[in-house]
Amino acid sequence: MTDRAEPVTLHERIRAEIEDRILTGAWKPGHRIPYEHELTAQFGCARMTVNKAIASLVDAGLIVRRRRVGSFVAQPRIHSAVLAIPDIQGEVTARGAAYGLRLLSRRRRKPVHSRPDELKLAGGGDLLALRCLDLSDGWPFALEDRQISLAAVPEADAADFSVSPPGTWLLDHVPWTEAEHRIAAVNADAETARLLSIAEGAACLSLERRTWRGERHITHVSQVFPGESYDLIARFTPRGGE
Description:
Elements: H1 10-23, H2 36-43, H3 47-59, E1 63-66, E2 70-73, E3 77-79, H4 88-94, E4 99-109, H5 116-122, E5 127-136, E6 139-149, H6 166-173, E7 178-187, H7 190-196, E8 203-213, E9 216-226
Parallel strand pairs: 3-7
Antiparallel strand pairs: 1-2, 4-5, 5-6, 6-9, 7-8, 8-9
């Protein structure tokens, strides 16, 4: 359950119950929501009340309506032309290498008030700030700086991220509905170069990602990969059969 205020009207209660089933993963993307007449019978209310609850979930991007078919849990939206959310542990093992993790730092802290992005992520609570080094066969594969909203994911505070990579843990435990990627080519500064065991100024790939669950921000992560260790692949089909 999310830690929002208790619903006070019937349409808010209907929305809250449906939303919880989506955000907890009980109803997966593509799952058909009960028809409005089914919800009307279940909650003993007018159809207009159910329609109002469904409409608010459509506006939030959690449900899509398909004419003459029904309403369905929306597929997660990814603002990126080339990349889905990567599981670094899975990618390393898929290459036939042994994955390793080094937790460099872990700190629970308040958001920096001069950073609007951190204030939005924190959602009135604290942030869990993590710095990790992902390893492939013992060699640095990626340097990761991550902040997790403890207001949105309070269970992260008790997770052992020295054993489970935070990215993998979040994919396994926290359903997300929207993600945004920003990709850039950067040169390694002295500290990044030292941690990745590369030359200062070496070419690297920088991947910055934010994820949301409904309207709640979940995490913000910045990952830096040595240029020779990571690539982006996209496969496209012609639009409209052209």
